[in-house]
Amino acid sequence: AKNISSMDICLYNSSMTESIEYNVALEQKIRRALEDDKLYFVLQPQYDTKTKRLRGFETLARLNDENGNPISPAMFIPIAEKTGLITSIDNWIIRNTMIFFKKVLNKTDKDLLLSVNISVLHLLNKGFIDEIKLMLQETEFPPNQLEIEITESVFISSISKAIEILNELKNMGIRIALDDFGTGYSSLSYLTKLPIDILKIDKSFIDELLVSDSGRNYVAAIISIGHIMNFSVLSEGVEIQDQLDILANLGSDYIQGYVWGKPMNTSDVLKLIGITEEL
Ligand code: C2E
Ligand code: CA
Ligand code: CA
Ligand code: CA
């Protein structure tokens, strides 16, 4: 299962980055959209697998082109990373979701988490910790209800620096999620060195659950590793009940996926939580 899924990702990336003209056009599109304030966010719910209790939400960036059509993050995030635009995108998304979610937390007794994606490049930026501190202050957001999602690629580029930054975030009370687990260059030795709270199993593995025994065994193994290391485990991209049933049996603590909730706009978030007043 592992080889097949990493191959898929390579094929996808190479076809997307084939044409220089295409990329330049897309970069221009992205810059224009950013100038025109066409960036916004949606939130996808995460649930406890056994009880279906709402754990919190992951915030996902969205960008519309001049015709109002969404540009997929799978396209604009990699370009934004190459051009350095990612830092301003991440910061805009984090600040604005924190502002929104702080208001939500003021209206509910529920202990909900907000998960945000941080690009490796951004995480390793000098000044990243100060930016986060400032945003927490400005928004009065409780650090222990903020979770930062990072992918494994961070450890390829600079493991010791990454560990240092993650430890600082941890000391501020922020939670750390290891995103897309299994798709990168996973090494058990670094897992033990990282202040991680939760492993997120990539959708490509969840897709294999019902396809083959080996696919299912692979997910079982990841869940075991996570638990042995004292992490929680969340399965991403769960689309159907049969996958959910297997994941409940295998002991995946949390799930995120279309089966229980698609990424949604802020008014649907309020409905889901049961907040009827205006914020
Ligand atoms: P990700 O962090 O792995 O996010 C999960 C992706 O899976 C999201 O795609 C989500 O919409 C999608 N998804 C969730 N459940 C299901 C499901 O059941 N079925 C299917 N088919 N898809 C599901 P999205 O929103 O297109 O984002 C793609 C990637 O772009 C994200 O992957 C993340 O790596 C990146 N991204 C999105 N927003 C941001 C951001 O604000 N900052 C950074 N740095 N990256 C972001
Ligand atoms: Ca993520
Ligand atoms: Ca992911
Ligand atoms: Ca991903």
Automatic annotation (TrEMBL):
Annotated TM spans: none
Organism superkingdom: Bacteria
Protein name per UniProt: Bifunctional diguanylate cyclase/phosphodiesterase
Residues of the full protein shown: 300 to 578 of 578
